[in-house]
Amino acid sequence: MTTLVATDLDRTLIYSAAALGLDVPDARAPRLVSVEMYDSRPQSFVTEPAARMIAELAAHPDAFFVPTTTRTREQYRRINFPGPVPRYAICANGGHLLVDGRTDHDWNLSVRQALDSSCVPLGEVRDHLVRTADPSWLLKEREAEELFTYLVVERDLMPDSWPKELAAWAEPRGWTVSLQGRKLYAVPGPLTKSAAVAEITRRTGARTVLAAGDSLLDADLLLAAHEGWRPGHGELASTGWAAPHVVPLPSRGVRCGEEILRILLRRVAALSAES
Ligand SMILES: [Mg+2]
User: Which of 85, 150, 223, 233 could lock 252 by a disulfide, CB 3.0 to 4.6 Å apart?
Assistant: First the structure.
């Protein structure tokens, strides 16, 4: 029986130095493996056992390991996972489907057509962001894949009220706001990870979808899955988000990434044995 394992990447499987969340003395910290280089520097990490488990999952005969990320394709391609290249990957929050690493242009076209008819255009949202964000804490404003936008902000300087006001402005316009570390995303509501997962489910004939994620942009992915897990850190944990079939894990940071992989592999093995 084929199982899809659709998991978010940043702060779910892989962790930047700032997101490691290691609360042990340096001498007892786990050894880490770099899985991403950026400007010739290591950027994202997993623990050694996590690296082995990613390779195992990617090579599993009864499972598809589907990296499911809001990253653009370019940002995703910087990641260098151990093991075979995943057959399918989801980028741009569902806006792009990669098949054997190559862009599925038909999928992107169908997503764009759906967006055109259901929410205000990206340009209008960007104008609003640039008009209302304060240059004292706004570090960068970026367009991603001509689909959505994100800001890099100085969290300590940005008022807590600003993302809430932005979300209240965006929601009636069909857009979702998600704050993850230093990045604040504004994403069209219909641009979802779950829609792309549904497409891969259809193509592979998978019977079960397992999912993991930490942010508001993962909520639809978790809800659409048969079983889900979320870390003890992140936007979903801090807002108390819950669903009956989604297990809230207590662990935090890079160790939680390792725990998620252990659970996913165990579930894949059990489902494989049932068939
Ligand atoms: Mg994440």
Answer: 233
Query: 69 C-alpha to center of ligand 1: Å?
Result: 7
Cα 198 to ligand 1 centroid, rounded to whole Å: 20
CA of 273 from ligand 1 middle (Å) equals 30
Which pair of tokens denotes residue 35?
Answer: 């899985």
52-65: average pLDDT: 98
> What are residue 228's DSSP bridge partners?
211, 246
Question: Is the domain covering 3-112+191-274 a CATH 3.40.50.970 domain?
Answer: no
* Average pLDDT of every residue of the chain: 96
pTM above threshold 0.70: yes
Q: How many CB atoms lie within 10 A of CB 22?
A: 16
CB distance 151 to 140 below 8 Å: yes
Lookup: tokens for 161: 């009220």
Class of the domain covering 120-188: alpha beta
Please give the distance, rounded to the nearest whole angstrom, from the Cα atom of residue 260 to the centre of ligand 1: 13
Instruction: Pinpoint the residues of the chain covered by CATH 3.40.50.1000.
Output: 3-112+191-274
pLDDT tens, position by position, 213-223: 999 999 999 99
Q: How far is the CA of 238 from the centre of ligand 1 (A)?
A: 13
Q: pLDDT for 148-207, tens place per residue?
A: 999 999 999 999 999 999 999 999 999 999 998 899 999 999 999 999 999 999 999 999
